[in-house]
Amino acid sequence: MTALEGDGGVRLAPVTYLPGAEPVEPTLERDQETVRWAIPLESSVDDHDAPPEDDAAAAGSSAEDAEEALTRRLRRSALSERESRTFLAQRGFDAGVVDATIDRFTIRGWIDDAVLAEQLLYAGTSRKGQGRRAIAQTLTARGIARDVADAALATLPDDDDDRALEYARSKAHGLRSYDLDTAMRRLIGQLARRGYSGSVASSAARTALTEERGSGGVRFR
Question: Is the pTM higher than 0.85?
Answer without folding.
Answer: no
